[in-house]
Amino acid sequence: MPFLELFDETLDINSTENYELSVQGSPDGLSYCILDSIRNKFILLRSFEPDENKYFNATNLNDLLSKDDFLLKRYKKINIVIPSQKFTLVPSALFDPAKKEEYFNLNHNNDEGNLIVANKINDPDAYLVFSVSKSVNDLFNSFYPGVYPFHHIKPLLNHISHTRKSVHGNYIHMHVERDYFNLIIFNDNILKFCNTFIYRNISDILYFVLNVFKKFDIKQEETIYFSGLTEKYDDLSSGFSIYIRTIKFAEPSGKFTFSYVFNETELQRYLNLFSVVNCE
User: Fold this and answer.
1) How many domains does the chain fold into?
2) Range(s) of the domain holding residue 107
3) Which end of the chain is more exposed for a tag (fewer CB within 10 A), N or C?
4) pLDDT digits (tens, 9 = 90+) for 67-120
């Protein structure tokens, strides 16, 4: 099982009531980070991934949650992020919470054993309606009662809302998960495109993205921001560098800093996990 751990020497398991815990979990993996809310500094990151060609189920996630000392402590605040490839956006003016299943079913088929959940987002002013495994949702609720789950697009859009305001014209962001990626495009601070694509290889990603670029007349001179499972000089970023002049890796930003132990980490891989502390 691939495992990553980074922790600052000031981390104190007996001081967690001064800390904020953010956990992201799905069949693709479990990761969490701890923010020292007194110093507004991230001091711990742990990440567990299933072996190649395998996925976590609720039992695997339960084992990880129940055997990790830090995940069983009390915290000042707890955030839960559940990535899901199926979601839709509904303008706030049109949203009726009693109809969230209807909104979701306009674009997706809801798989058996899934729940439909809604998150309010501020920019754009809309509701994010998404599906989540009932077993995974129940598991998190059993460990963290009363903590409402966020879809991973909520912290991603929150991050984008702050970073794109200094950009004129197009702001393009691609977030990569294990089997799918999200492509988000703003133009002059107006959301023009937000969608998910399932992929099998890098050629699929290039094909989908370049077709969207053609539709929106996006030129080679544009900048694209990457986050998620991609890093500098990997096959994905190298492939895009042929078609897009400027590639940047999104860095978490907010009223927080990082311990020096994070200096050599590709922070864009955990952008949503770090950014969820900015969400309401």
Assistant:
1) 2
2) 87-138
3) C
4) 999 999 999 999 999 999 999 999 999 999 999 999 999 999 888 889 999 999
